Amino acid sequence: MPKKKQKKRSRRGRHPVAQRELVPQPRMSAPAENAPRDEGLDLWEPEPPPEFSHGGAAVDLKFATGLLPAVRLGFGELFAQERKRPIREGWGYAVELPAVLELLERIGHGRVTAHDARSVLLKSADLLYDTLRAWECEEPDDLRNACREAGGCVLCEKNRSWFEAVLDEADERWQRLQQPEKYPFAAGRQGIHETSCSVVRRETPSEYARPTGEAYAAALNAFGHTVDPHSCGEHFEGSRAYPRFDVMTGEEAKAWIRERTGPKGGRNFKRCQRCAPAV
Predict the structure, then answer these.
(1) pLDDT tens digits, residue range 180-204?
(2) How far apart are the C-alpha atoms of 97 and 251, rounded to whole Å?
(3) Has residue 83 got a pLDDT over 80?
(4) In whole angstroms, how large is the CA radius of gyration of the chain?
(5) Among 184, 133, 181, 164, which Cα is nearest to 236's?
(6) Residues 44, 31 contacting (CB under 8 angstroms)
(7) What does the alpha-carbon distance between residue 120 and residue 199 come to, in Å, rounded to a whole number?
(8) Cβ–Cβ contacts within 10 Å for residue 18, how many?
(9) Are 184 and 252 in contact (CB under 8 A)?
(10) Segment 67-74 mean pLDDT
(11) Which of the chain's ends, N or C, has fewer CB atoms near its CB within 10 Å?
């Protein structure tokens, strides 16, 4: 008679070997939901504080009676609706609490006046306005008005090279518009025309000159605050104070059409029905 197959036993002799399940241990900084705890004893250790400051910027608060060095000021995380005010008056800024407490101690001991503390904090916020890019959170109209009053701003400087390139293109377009015999075709967002077409004349300024002086500052303010430099100038071209059409020779017009004609003959442009340009 065949022998019965015996169950595998552990070395201790009586019970089958149970397969052990691998259970990941919880991290000390993120306790498991049902982890055991001793009464009155917190088993989970907090993360150690960073060795160096992170975020914001360090500003020395200078007073007549002494210096409060390297106070950390941040921007963009706290916009309290209960105390909303202009950004240059502190809205959106945060100051490290230990520095605030030390400042209050100095006020309490008579070493700093509350007026001086307020003035220095506002100067610090203004100092960091560009560094922390606080202007990105301004309302466009408020930013444009402040720029106009100050005669310029960081956003205007940021977009100045783009604006100069767009003006160079406008100058070239205007020069070509004055020579329709050499540049007989004009292309806009709606399609291609003859340069002498009434549609082109209607949407082109009767006079144009590159803005200079106060006119340049006003134009930079108008477009630098509203136009995305990566938009290929479409919003700029929407202004009828500037030439809006790409003015081309016959060969340039043929190349323009080829770029907008698919391999199967379809086309991504229109010919003006009024002038019916024969390219």
Answers:
(1) 999 999 998 889 999 999 999 998 9
(2) 69
(3) yes
(4) 35
(5) 164
(6) yes
(7) 59
(8) 7
(9) no
(10) 92
(11) N
Inter-axis angle of helices 154-177 and 213-224, nearest 10: 110
Angle at CA of residue 46, ends 44 and 49, nearest 5°: 165
- What is the spatial distance between Cα 104 and Cα 108, in angstroms, rounded to a whole number? 6
CA distance 136 to 229: 15
Which residue has 């060969």 as its token pair?
A: 251
Taking alpha carbons only, the member of 211, 182, 196 closest to residue 245 is: 196
Burial class (CB in 10 A: 0-12, 13-18, 19+), 98: exposed
Residue type, 69: P
Do 156 and 132 touch, CB atoms closer than 8 A? no
Q: What is the mean predicted confidence (pLDDT) over 36-46?
A: 54
Residue 245, class by beta-carbon neighbours within 10 Å (0-12 exposed, 13-18 middle, 19+ buried)?
A: buried
The DSSP-derived string for the chain is -PPPPPPP--TTSSSPPPPPPP-PPPPTTS--TT---BTTB--PPPPPPPSS--SSEEEEEEETTEEEEEEEEEESS---GGG---GGGTTTEEE-HHHHHHHHHHHHTTSS-HHHHHHHHHHHHHHTTTTTTGGGGS-HHHHHHHHHHHT--HHHHHHHHHHHHHHHHHHHHHHHHT-TTT--EEEETTEEEETT-HHHHHTS-SS-----HHHHHHHHHHHHTT--TTSTTHHHHTSTTS--SEEE-HHHHHHHHHHTB-TTS-BS--B-TTT----
